Amino acid sequence: MEINPKAHKYAEENVKLNKIKNVDLINGDVREVLPKIEDKFDRILMPLPKTAEEFLDVALLKVKNNGVIHLYSFISLSKVPEMEEKIKKICKENNKSCKILEVVKCGQFSPEEFRICFDIKIKDL
Questions:
Q1: Share of the chain above pLDDT 70, in %
Q2: Which domains does the chain have, with CATH numbers?
Q3: Phi then psi for 115, rounded to 5 degrees?
């Protein structure tokens, strides 16, 4: 899901160029659109690194049991444990358990901050 129409268009072109199948791309605001979707998903990508955790509650409503959420964040390496605890707290508040499968440094935002991907396996409680 992408709120920015231009970014959504690029995502569509990327899917087409790479001949990717079985992907649903939606242009819209996640808080408005996602609750209207009946399906649940095996995998959810949350690539908005500055505020993705603010939308984790919405993603938890739509991830299948044993599904995986990839949540990106711009943080310093010293803040990774704090973010892991925040993720676990949000999951618990939404009646889910979670396991952080992997934490990957996948880019640098500033001298002290990195783009970190948290791969999170979600289970229903």
A1: 100
A2: 1-36 (no CATH), 39-124 (3.40.50.150)
A3: -85, 115
